[in-house]
Every structure is written in structure tokens, then in C-alpha cells.
Specification:
Number of domains: 2
Enzyme class: oxidoreductase
Number of helices: 17
Largest sheet: 6 strands, parallel
Structural class: alpha/beta
Shape: globular
EC number: 1.1.99.24
Bound molecules: zinc ion
Oligomer: single chain
Strand content: 5-15%
Low-confidence stretches: 1-9
CATH architecture of the largest domain: Up-down Bundle
CATH class of the largest domain: Mainly Alpha
Family: Belongs to the iron-containing alcohol dehydrogenase family. Hydroxyacid-oxoacid transhydrogenase subfamily.
Catalytic activity: 4-hydroxybutanoate + 2-oxoglutarate = (R)-2-hydroxyglutarate + succinate semialdehyde; (S)-3-hydroxybutanoate + 2-oxoglutarate = (R)-2-hydroxyglutarate + acetoacetate
Strand order of the largest sheet: 1-8-5-4-2-3
Mean pLDDT: 93
CATH superfamily of the largest domain: Dehydroquinate synthase-like - alpha domain
Organism: Jatrophihabitans endophyticus
Radius of gyration: 21 Å
Helix content: 40-55%
Order of helices and strands: EHEHHEHEHHEEEEHHHHHHHHHHH
């Protein structure tokens, strides 16, 4: 019998990382070519998945019409809920099952549309319901047994990176928690990133979704390195393998792009160069975190968004209270990075320098990144901490309980975060400046 390979036994450190990405088409006008791209994939009947606000711009319909020139029949489903829930995704799945069959899906919109399209694709090619596939312990943690149909993701808001990732995020209403479905089969086949589509994004959306980009880059750059995990067997490999040289490259490039474009894109939405840089930053950050993973700010964002009381952010539909994903992620980020600083001081300092190269010397090194973040958040109109979106000290226990449900994310943190550690981060994040 051969000896086991070196390191392939318990206790040995990981030596392997993986990198996955969709095909990418980037640039002004890239979205004019989707019909051709689908025809090249052999597709004949595509469902365009979007929300009513994006549908009102006429863009999804234009994309659908463009497909017919290439003999791809298309219909538009515009019932996506912004910040989707298990129920809204199931409704989309039921609609698609009723009006199928489809052999391709095209998501046009923000992360909500792309994530809903992932769920629709998953459940039109695999049996069961949405909750069966949601990460355990919130859902059934089932893995798709069959391949999915081609999914083309066309982001119209820069931020989520959903066009690059294997994840779809949703609110599970009965448990008042945000969770996700995560599997390599969920990664879109093709990401079409057309900066011209983001020009109409309101300033509040640019600010919140930009903070999401920023946190994707920062969290993947500071994630627990892949070498810190025990060696896995091939069948145990997960899409998020921790910081690695390839994800580091994308994450740091995203930070440099954000440093020069983020404030400009919020201040002047018609600044096309700033929009192009933000679209690139979102793509780069997605290609980084889509492999490395994210950690404490994202784990905390789930209960912040899921337990919102009565907060209505500017730039979003105001019929429902919400803390948009990127805003929810950012609100505890400064304190989360103060907490993770000791795990890799040089990475935290490097990230701060990339984001604000001429920043004044901080009072202490651990404050460098939190200071850069809070200055930026204040400049672009992000609320001053979780207190400003309606949370108080009495809510911390429930927020901690919600964050602790995100074990998949917390496992990527460079330092173990206990319930007490998380409570401290939430308390210190009530007001940030
Ligand atoms: Zn995010």
C-alpha cells in the first residue's frame, strides 16, 4: 500500500488553494452582445430575471429583444424583490417552472436579481425548494446534484460581485436571518460588466454598494490565509479557501481603484471615468472574494439587515424598511478590522495605505484602517454606526446570535471571534465618529 502523500493526514497544514471565475466581458457596450453570446452557448429559450425598477428603464426588455435576432426566444420576469427572501425566490422559481422550459437565464440588475436568477437556475435544473439548499443550520444544506443551465449575469449596480461568485444571499423570513446558498455550480457562466449601465444608479446606492466592494476587497485580503487550515481531501474543498496569492492580487487592485474613484462616483454620478473604475473595482473585488471569502463585517451584516426596524435609506424604494447589504456590511467594518488587526498588522496597514496614501499618521497602528474607513463613510453619507439605523444596546444579544449563525463566514476570519468579541464589536459600532 502506498504511503499517504505528505501532508495528507490529520493535523498537517493546507498546501493547496483553488481559483474559479466566470468568463468575463467588460466595457462600454458589452451588454449589446448578449444575444450573440447566448447563441454561441447553444441556447434557444432564455428567461431574463430582473426587478420592477430595472424593468422600468426598459433595459431587460431591450436585452430580451436583442436575443431574438439570434434565434433565442426570451421572456422577462420582473418580480425580483430587492433584498430577496426565501419566499420571493420561491415565487420566482414557481413562475419559471410554470412558464418553462428554459435553457438559459440572464440576470439584469443588482445582486438581488443575480442571486434570484441563481436560485431559479438551481431549482429549474434540480428538485426541491429554495430552503432545501440554504446553508445549514438555517436551511437543509443540500448540494445540487445536476449541472445548471448557462447563467449570464449583467450587473446594473456596482457592488455585490454576485456576477463572479458561487453564492446567493437571501433573508429567511421565518428565522429573521440572512443566509445563503453556496456551491460551485452557482457561479455564472458569463459576467457582462457594462459601466454605462451603472450611470443611473443614485448616489445613495453608489455609496452603499461601493462599501460592499470595499469590504469584499478588505475582508478577502485580511481573510485567514489558506495555509492556516488543515489539509483537505479533494472532495472537501470549498469555494472560499482563504486569502491566497491570486485573490490578494485582485483585492489590492480593487482597493487602489476605489482610492481614486469612490468619492468621485458618489459626488458626480455622470463622471464616466469614475463609474468605469468602480465597475472594475467591483469586478476585481468579486474575483478576489469569490475565492478567498469574506468574514466578520459580512457575518454581522446579515442580522443587521435581517433585524432592521424602521430605516429607509435614500436612493432605495421606500415602501419597505431596509438596511442595504453594503451599508449593513460597512457599519461594523471599522471595529471589525480593529479587532482583526493583531492577526496580520502588515496587511491592515497596507490596505489603509492603498485606500488613503496620504493619510495622517494614526494615533496607533490598529486605528489606521478604522480611521480611513470612517473618514470615507462620513464623506459619502453612510450612517454613523448601527445606532443611526435604529439599533440600541438592548439589540446586541440578538445581533450576536444572528452573526454566530454565519459560521461559514466566521471561519474565514483571521482571528476567532467569540460571542463576547462580536458583542464588543457591535457595542463599539453604535456610533463611529
Ligand atoms: Zn457583500
Amino acid at each position: 500500500m502506498p504511503e499517504p502523500a505528505a501532508g495528507a493526514h490529520d493535523g498537517a497544514a493546507e498546501t493547496v488553494f483553488t481559483y474559479g471565475a466566470p468568463q468575463l466581458k467588460y466595457g462600454d457596450g458589452a451588454s449589446d452582445e448578449i444575444g450573440y453570446d447566448l447563441s454561441q452557448l447553444g441556447c434557444t429559450r432564455a428567461l431574463v430575471v430582473t426587478d420592477s425598477r430595472v424593468a422600468a428603464t426598459g433595459l431587460p426588455q431591450r436585452i430580451a429583444e436583442q436575443m431574438t435576432r439570434f434565434d433565442v426566444e426570451a421572456a422577462v420576469y420582473d418580480g425580483v424583490r430587492v433584498e430577496p427572501t426565501d419566499e420571493s425566490m420561491q415565487a420566482a422559481v414557481d413562475w419559471a417552472r410554470e412558464h418553462g422550459p428554459w435553457d438559459a437565464f440572464v440576470a439584469v440588475g443588482g445582486g438581488s436579481s443575480i442571486d434570484t436568477a441563481k436560485a431559479v437556475d438551481l431549482l429549474l435544473t434540480n428538485p426541491g425548494t429554495v430552503i432545501d439548499y440554504v446553508n445549514a443550520p438555517v436551511g437543509g444544506g443540500r448540494a445540487p446534484a445536476h449541472r445548471l443551465h448557462p447563467l449570464v449575469a449583467v450587473p446594473t449596480t456596482t457592488g455585490t460581485g454576485s456576477e463572479s461568485t458561487t453564492v446567493c444571499v437571501l433573508d429567511v423570513l421565518s428565522q429573521r436571518v440572512k443566509s445563503g446558498i453556496s456551491h460551485p455550480r452557482l457561479r455564472p457562466t458569463l459576467a457582462v460588466v457594462d459601466p454605462l449601465l451603472t450611470v443611473t444608479q443614485p448616489a445613495g446606492v453608489t455609496a452603499a454598494s461601493g462599501m460592499d466592494i470595499l469590504c469584499h476587497a478588505l475582508e478577502s485580503y485580511t481573510a485567514r490565509p489558506y495555509t492556516a487550515s488543515p489539509r483537505k481531501q479533494p472532495e472537501q474543498r470549498v469555494p472560499y479557501c482563504g486569502a491566497n496569492p491570486v485573490s490578494d492580487m485582485w483585492s489590492t487592485q480593487a482597493l487602489s481603484l476605489l482610492a481614486t474613484s469612490f468619492r468621485k462616483a458618489v459626488r458626480d454620478g455622470d463622471d464616466l471615468d469614475a463609474r468605469r473604475a468602480m465597475a472594475q473595482a467591483a469586478t476585481f473585488a468579486g474575483l478576489g472574494f469569490g475565492n478567498a471569502g469574506v468574514h466578520i463585517p459580512h457575518a454581522n451584516a446579515y442580522p443587521i439587515a435581517g433585524q432592521v426596524g424602521d430605516f429607509h435609506p435614500a436612493g432605495y424604494p421606500d415602501d419597505e424598511a431596509m438596511v442595504p447589504h453594503g451599508m449593513a456590511v460597512s457599519l461594523t467594518a471599522p471595529e471589525a478590522f480593529r479587532f482583526t488587526f493583531p492577526a496580520s498588522p502588515e496587511r491592515h496597514l497596507h490596505a489603509a495605505r492603498l485606500l488613503e496614501p496620504d493619510a495622517a499618521e494614526p494615533a496607533d497602528d490598529a486605528s489606521a484602517l478604522p480611521d480611513v474607513l470612517t473618514r470615507l463613510m462620513r464623506d459619502i453619507g453612510i450612517p454613523d454606526g448601527i445606532g443611526s439605523v435604529g439599533f440600541g444596546a438592548d439589540d446586541v444579544d440578538e445581533l450576536v446570535a444572528g452573526a454566530l449563525k454565519q459560521q461559514r463566514l466566521l471561519a474565514t476570519a483571521p482571528r476567532e471571534a467569540t460571542a463576547d468579541d462580536l458583542a464588543g464589536i457591535f457595542h463599539r459600532s453604535m456610533a463611529l465618529w
